[in-house]
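User: Hi! I'm working on a homework problem where we have to compare a predicted structure to a textbook description. Could you give me the structure for the chain below?
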Amino acid sequence: MALTFHHGLSKDLSLILDDADDYNVIIQVGENQNIKEFRAHSVILRARSLYFKSALSSNWITKKDNMIIFSKPNLTPTIFDMVLRYIYTGELDLTEQSGENILDLLVASDELLLEELFEHVQDYLIEKQTNWVRENFIFVLNTVFRLDNCKRLQDYCLESIREDLLPFFSSKSFPSINKQILLGVLKRDDLQIEEIIIWDYLIKWGIEQTPGLGNENCDRENWNYEDYEALKNTLNQFIPLIRFAGISHADFFDKVRPYRNIITDNIYEEIEEFHKDALPITTMLPPRIGLIFKSNIINQKLAKIIINWINNKDAMYINNRNGPFYKLNIIYRGSRDGINNRSFRIRCNGRVESLVLIKVKNTNKIFGGYSSIGFSSLGCGYIVEYGYRFYNSSNNFIFSFEDGDDTQNMKISRVVKETQAIMVHKENAFSFGWGSLVMSGNGLYANNSSQSYENKLKTATVYTIEEIEVFTVNRKCEDLIL
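Assistant: Happy to help. Predicted structure tokens:
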């Protein structure tokens, strides 16, 4: 059996680094008042780094008194000390380092072709420096988008701003944001912001990026043909990424049409025809994911699945190019409003198309239900002998996910007794059917064998509610197709 003694090896190599008397490389790091010399051994540097293997070849090195002199002014002594210690010992401690130092280490490890170190630092920023990355996302984005191998951190940054893009757009740094970053943002289908806001900020960015416009010539009334052509050239890669089908008729005429000259003829003509006659989209992109939504219980992916179910589509159906645009407005959240019957009834009162999501305690399981007729005070209905009332719907369904990111074990049960779609009873906050999915106080009764709904959830359990959210389902198709 092979034995390993990595700890002793690391300790001995650390002593060689700290007290070297046979070094043959002097590396000068930093610039101005922040310069430091490091002593190292070419054989170790070349063995551990492809960068040094090439840089310390006979074709590149400069020698003085048989000593290799190497300069890295673009790295600070603090960063290079961590790099060198990693090269010699394979050890790294980032717990006391600032987010900026860790980001600089990521850039250095990429330049020095230290792949293992690069992957570790990238993961560390995502997992341990979450708050710092989000607080400095434009600075981080501008840095990581220069690194071809940093896709994971790039995607993480874009994901972190997806749900709340307004601070990104309205920040002072936005007019100078890197072109590739903005392209990466606009290519996403899941941005939770009105498309007209994206258009407004894209125009502002384009004006600032176009020579001859910006502060010196920001009044469109004074623009000539050349000014519009210059702006068109600046934005030629961006215009096709705008989801014009997600912009209302009024906003199109007020905010898009004035910039008709920067939009190619084929796209503009299709936008006009779309607004006149609701013709199918062929050139334009469809609305982004067809959904504006923010939940503490499920992610955007599961929300899209629920929207597909509402539209009687398969769970993983890809949004058609003329589908309605949805906005789910939160009207009740248990952690904010209280988890009890009274709070639910006060906030979820009325015949309003609604979606309820429930996270239960002691498990990752999530339940929910969609009601095209809301939950209570629904007007006229069929009164049953014992004081509860049923309401009719052919579209209702209940569902479950194994966790907030489940797309493999999800289950849906559609209503089978349409006259029992919703039951209103004084002891319950809501009830899908005859006890198929019921909230009473802070308890959730999931008895899917009641025969009001399909028995696909396969559960007959009482859970304690950890969090519950109710959204009104607003279809904005009429705003998009006029």
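For your comparison, note the following. The chain has 19 helices and 17 strands. Confidence is low (pLDDT under 50) at residues 378-385, 477-482. Good luck with the assignment!
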